[in-house]
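Record minuted for completeness.

…
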Amino acid sequence: MQIKKIIAAIILGVIIGFSTPGCIVKAQTATVSTKKHTAVSEIKVDETLYQNANSLDVVNHPNNYLNKKIKMDAVFDKFSTLGLDYKPAFRNSKDYISFLIRRNDVSDHVVPLSEMKLFLKRDLAEKFIDLESGDKVQIYGRVFSTALGDPWIEVEHLKITQKISKKKS
């Protein structure tokens, strides 16, 4: 039992360690031009290939969506390293970054939907470095695993549908 606690502490330390540099990168690249953002968000997607899905339904019934392409509307929370390099549903942290969306059943608090593992290739993620917590997005992806009883989704396209308004200081 003690070994499990030690392993859990090590894994948590690794996750936190990977998350910190991402914050620094975001701060350094916050001046990305909006032209790049606009071009990315206007990429045409063949929506007929994707089944509309509710994020909570996907979390509650992941096996119903296994190996299916889905489209979800969501509120972006933050980039993360959650689930990367986990062997049963492997996505290499050198090639991918994960991100979290907010639960859509909680309105009075910001609660990430951590049960849903969303993976975005790093080269695509770099085009969305200006995403902020609260931005509305459409996610197009394929559920490739249900390891740990959770949906693991490779995001093929990401579309920003609404940016949050920036507060003036």
Remarks:
- The chain has one domain: 2-162.
- DSSP finds four helices and six strands in the chain.
- Confidence is low (pLDDT under 50) at residues 18-41.
